[in-house]
Amino acid sequence: MKVKGIIAVDLFGLPADYDAITAIAKDNNLFVIEDAAQSFGADYHGRKACSLADVACTSFFPAKPLGGYGDGGMCFTDNDDLADLIKSLRIHGKGIHKYDNVRIGINGRLDTLQAAILKAKFEIFPEEVELRQQVVQRYNEMLVSLQPDLAEIKTPMVPDGMRSVWAQYSLLAKDTEHRTKIQERSNAAGIPTAIYYPIPLHLQAAFSNLDYTKGDFPVSEDFSQRIFSLPMHPYLTAEDQKRISNVILSTGRE
Ligand SMILES: Cc1ncc(COP(=O)(O)O)c(C=O)c1O
Question: Do both 68 and 147 map to the same domain?
Fold first, then answer.
């Protein structure tokens, strides 16, 4: 198999390690696509997410940091030829006008209603990114202060020089059994939790042709057994967070 490019995924709001990825790409003459579906609004050493690779793609699905009320997304590039190609692909492979078709494309137009909603939400987006930092700081403080040695639940960290936009606030339980108990107890208390993601990419049926097996990516496999995410949005109150943290940390101590 000949590798042509790298799709780096910015997970949970944090950009991937683009210094390392770009160096590998350069050495091997590969293009890089930034999957910035979860990182729109994040910072990477003074640069913004969506500007960290040859092309970046983000998502405006409702659950994303900048979410519309339905589907939507955007591509970013500073390469004019690529920008023209993407614009053409977006509208059925258009050429100089929309009834001139020079290639097979897709219908990838952003719906007008979604565009209007996103435009309004974009104005308060910087404020919401700040609020997200405050919500996470509160979660971290509550979860750390209630279990100083962090033996039970691991909180997320952000490397120096980076700022996450916290698409998710994810924690690691001790093991699968502990996670199941936490989810059951949270559910009973009316607190939604979610698992992103229960099956690592290399074990997905869709990629079975690549012949990976269990044990090939032990860290991903381990995390997929223990990870879970808490409610996360810019308007979460300290009071709600306290209640959530207490339920999470009381699990397994009884
Ligand atoms: C990392 C990542 N990539 C891609 C996507 C796909 O985005 P969309 O469903 O808007 O195409 C998502 C959204 O779930 C995502 O989280």
Answer: no
